[in-house]
Specification:
With 338 residues, the chain is an all-alpha fold. It has helices spanning 26-57, 63-86, 96-118, 123-130, 133-144, 151-169, 178-199, 208-234, 241-269, 271-277, 280-292, 299-315.
């Protein structure tokens, strides 16, 4: 069955990543689910490792400049994949401005804040704070009246914020150094959570691949001027085999190909399952940072991370759907890769 010419969501019998029609053969379906979950697990490992890759790279490459080049590559790779899988790469004219604003927030402002914060905080702490994204998504969705103001959502948010306090307090609050990095990272998580909630209505018109591709490209535009200025000030010295490899990994593997695997996993096993797997990312990132960067694993980080996860799980116990008179929108694509 062909895709809608507008680039809208795939019909029910076609996966959102542009794969083959579903089959009623039970063994084949079981194999497809296993492969999708393995692919999603590999993406979680790739996203966790990306915190360490970016942390190492921005020691020599200016942070916003690195993010600009990284997402320029990711956007172009996804644009090519979009054209190949869906037969076109354009946007409906009416959605250009809304998606430009959302992409600027969710990828442009987010990356400016996150990459800048990462220069003065640890990779493990960054991963734990970014893991609060689902809490911000829920709060924004409640404010938009696309989710009901259930008590579980507010309790989960409160528990999650307690976890944030534990993570930040683990190394002490110093606004002149690491504390500032933590605050920038938390602000980045607010931007990303808001993007996921605000962009969800567009999934009624656009496939997740098309939405993410253009949001990344619009976000890259936001990063272009500050990123280019940082790279110009740094001179050519940052161009080394190591930094180029980091850009390729972070942009193409963690940013481009990982999203394709996630879209396929969402189509096969559902967004809730993928969202649950994403709870592995901060834990893996803390472990990778300890091994690769020598970052200490602090008791406050472990306890705070567990409390954040508990808050997310509590919030997810709330029934899905809008309040009476609210708007029902598709579930946002659970992408939290930094």
């Amino acid at each position: 069955m062909p895709r809608p010419p507008s680039g809208g969501p795939a019909p029910a019998d076609v996966d959102v990543a542009g794969g083959a029609p579903s089959t009623t053969d039970a063994p084949a379906q079981a194999d497809a689910r296993r492969l999708a979950e393995v692919g999603a697990l590999l993406v979680m490992v790739a996203w966790a490792a990306n915190f360490i890759i970016v942390k190492g790279a921005i020691a020599t490459v200016p942070p916003i400049g690195f993010a600009f080049v990284r997402f320029l590559f990711a956007g172009l790779v996804l644009l090519a994949i979009l054209r190949l899988r869906e037969g076109s790469a354009g946007l409906p004219r009416a959605l250009v401005v809304p998606l430009a604003i959302l992409g600027g927030l969710g990828f442009g402002v987010y990356q400016v804040l996150w990459s800048s914060g990462l220069t003065v905080t640890t990779a493990g702490t960054s991963a734990l704070l970014v893991a609060t994204t689902p809490i911000w998504t829920v709060l924004v969705a409640v404010a938009m009246r696309t989710e009901a103001p259930d008590r579980a959502r507010f309790v989960g948010a409160a528990v999650g914020f307690a976890g944030v306090a534990l993570v930040v307090a683990a190394r002490g609050l110093d606004l002149a150094a690491t504390g500032l990095g933590d605050m920038l990272t938390l602000a980045a998580a607010v931007c990303w959570g808001s993007y996921l909630a605000l962009s969800a209505p567009l999934l009624a018109t656009l496939s997740p691949l098309r939405l993410t591709t253009w949001a990344i490209l619009f976000g890259t535009v936001v990063m272009a001027i500050p990123g280019s200025l940082q790279l110009a000030d740094a001179g050519p010295g940052w161009v080394t085999p190591e930094t180029l490899a980091a850009i390729v990994y972070s942009g193409i593997v963690a940013g481009g190909l990982a999203n394709v695997l996630i879209f396929r996993a969402i189509a096969v096993v559902g967004p809730s399952r993928v969202a649950n797997l994403q709870l592995l990312v901060p834990a893996l990132a803390v472990l990778f940072a300890a091994v690769a960067l020598g970052e200490p694993i602090l008791a406050g980080q472990v306890l705070g991370g567990a409390v954040i996860v508990a808050g997310i799980l509590i919030a997810r116990r709330a029934p899905a759907g809008p309040p009476p008179g609210g708007r029902r929108v598709p579930e946002p694509t659970p992408l939290t890769g930094a």
